[in-house]
Specification:
With 436 residues, the chain is mostly beta strands. Helix content is 3%, strand content 39%.
């Protein structure tokens, strides 16, 4: 099962009969490590572990663990939000022409740079939260609020498939969308959201659930396309949402939704088991990531949620399921006893973040001490025997059987500000790992 840094909950395959949009493929650019300003990379250390896309000094690169090549994929502007196709044959990203990053356009490129397309014919700007790959084919789904749902094949003109900017099921047959029901404009706080599904082929939408006087935030589909995940947003309040709300599961057959857990709306804090039967989630309330955060494994069909063992005085973050489904990795950090709401306080707390590995049920947990501390966003590599992670503004690889970690990429020219949103940083804007 492939992994990217952004959780893909909403995909799979449907074709497009559009004609080529006239984009001209661009030749690959193969940088040499001696060129000024190019990334410092160690292809040998990453051998056999997959494909790593990353943004360096605003430009997009790919480190190929099979060929050992380091390829530059963009030449101008600012690149961001790299997203791998299910087979690793294509990489989508958003390109911006200025520092304000308010004019995003969608690009699709081969990882060796042999073909590159600027996707024309979409409403602009394109935002990263509107884009996802279908898991069974090289088709992108782009959902624009108020402007509909589009499908895009590399090199083809986008095909608008529905006026509802919803979430496409993994089998490509059904769209789920949320609509606010009519309400008294004098009392907007009382408005209700409804969850609908409609076949891509047409027919009337079916209403599955109504959140009375509350909002609904769609989180995605079950991997087998037989159910949906969503969060209930009390009173349509962004502030309440930021402090954590309920994550619910609902089968397409309808009924009452099952509460799985209460958590923050961070996509990188959800990880599906390889067989798609379980969801590993960071649970807890409060927008500060250093307080009241632990791990739970949820069965989306039964609604059962099992809390994993938690060391006293700690928080657990950034979970990822191993390729064989037998293990998990995550970050464990100290839970501060005093207020740390300052840049210096957050920096001090980040130095307690350590790399841990455990059985899938949370038992037999052990710290990977060789990795040190200050760990962020650990991910299993292709062979399931190594962990890729971030530390000191660089990407590292550590062998779980022992040995010193090896720096794969780094150090990035621009440091990320971890104080920006209560300690949470999404790395999907500059990194994407493909491990299939």
């Amino acid at each position: 099962m492939f992994m990217v840094l952004m959780l893909l909950l909403i995909q799979t395959g449907c074709g497009s009969n559009s004609k080529n949009n006239g984009a001209t493929p661009t030749p690959p650019t193969q940088p040499k490590s001696s060129e000024a300003g190019l990334p410092q990379a160690d292809p040998g250390a990453f051998k056999g572990q997959g494909l790593l896309a990353f943004v360096w000094d605003n430009l997009l690169y790919v480190l190929d663990g099979d060929s050992g090549d380091l390829t530059k994929l963009s030449d101008a502007g600012r690149a961001g939000e790299p997203m791998w196709s299910p087979d690793g044959q294509w990489l989508a990203y958003i390109g911006y022409s200025d520092a304000q990053m308010d004019d995003g356009k969608l690009f699709i490129v081969k990882p060796d740079g042999s073909r590159s397309y600027e996707v024309n014919g979409l409403p602009l700007p394109v935002n990263s939260n509107e884009i996802s790959w279908l898991p069974a084919s090289d088709v992108l789904v782009v959902a624009f609020n108020g402007q509909g749902l589009y499908m895009v094949r590399p090199g083809d003109t986008p095909d608008k498939v529905n006026d509802n900017p919803g979430v496409l099921s993994p089998d490509g047959k059904t769209i789920a969308f949320v609509k606010t029901l009519p309400y008294d404009e004098k009392h907007p706080e009382n408005r209700s959201d409804a969850l609908y599904v409609v076949p891509v082929a047409g027919k009337e939408p079916v209403q599955l659930y109504v959140a009375r006087e509350n909002g609904i935030c769609s989180t995605g589909w079950w991997p087998d396309s037989k159910g949906l995940l969503f969060r209930i947003d009390p009173m349509h309040s962004a502030s309440i949402m930021a402090d954590g709300v309920g994550l619910y599961s609902l089968p397409l057959t309808g009924g009452e939704p099952q509460l799985l857990t209460t958590s923050l709306n961070h996509p990188e804090w959800l990880s599906w088991s390889p067989d798609g039967s379980k969801l590993l989630a960071v649970k807890g309330t409060g927008r500060e990531i250093w307080l009241n955060k632990s791990l739970a494994v949820c069965d989306v069909k039964t609604g059962e949620s099992i809390d994993l063992p938690q060391s006293p005085g700690t928080v657990s973050l950034d979970p990822d399921w191993s390729p064989d489904g037998k293990y998990i990795t995550y970050v464990q950090a100290a839970e501060p006893k005093e207020d740390i709401s300052s840049a210096a306080g957050v920096a001090s707390w980040e130095r307690t973040r350590a790399l841990w590995v455990a059985d899938a049920d949370g038992k037999n947990a052990r710290q990977i001490k060789e990795a040190g501390t200050g760990i962020k966003r650990p991910l299993w590599s292709r062979d399931g025997a190594h962990i890729v992670y971030l530390k000191d503004n660089s990407v590292w690889l550590v062998d779980l059987s022992g040995g010193s970690p090896v720096k794969i990429i780094g150090t990035f020219p621009d440091a990320t500000d971890s104080f920006g949103y209560y300690g949470y940083v999404s790395w999907s804007n500059i990194l994407a790992l493909y491990r299939k």
